[in-house]
């Protein structure tokens, strides 16, 4: 079927752009040589990851110790839980939104404005 499409494109009355001829020839070579050649191509082969993916820190509202080896650390105004034996126990507290930490005075809280 591909041969029919290729033949009809190449033998059409309008001349094809030179780039299209190269693309059609490349596609034909892939189908002619089979999929086996493309899989063994070094650019398409999979690579073995060098680093093992690991979980990061869990962000929680109130960090808690999960085992005897867990301990608390305060860094950058956050409470962290670190664990020597189980890396999956790592936690850190959420950062408060600065709008929730404003100190509101009576002038900003009153129903009527004084002026």
Automatic annotation (TrEMBL):
Record has Lipid biosynthesis as a keyword: no
| A cellular component annotation (GO) from this entry | mitochondrion
- Report the domain of life of the source organism: Eukaryota
The UniProt keywords, alphabetically, are: Mitochondrion, Ribonucleoprotein, Ribosomal protein, Transit peptide
InterPro entries, per database record: Mitoribosomal_bL36m (IPR052143), Ribosomal_bL36 (IPR000473), Ribosomal_bL36_sp (IPR035977)
Q: Where does the UniProt entry say this protein principally localizes?
A: mitochondrion
SUPFAM superfamilies attached here? Ribosomal protein L36
Subcellular localization, as worded in the UniProt entry: Mitochondrion
Q: Which family does it belong to?
A: Belongs to the bacterial ribosomal protein bL36 family.
This protein's name = Ribosomal protein
Q: Which organism is it from?
A: Hypothenemus hampei (Coffee berry borer)
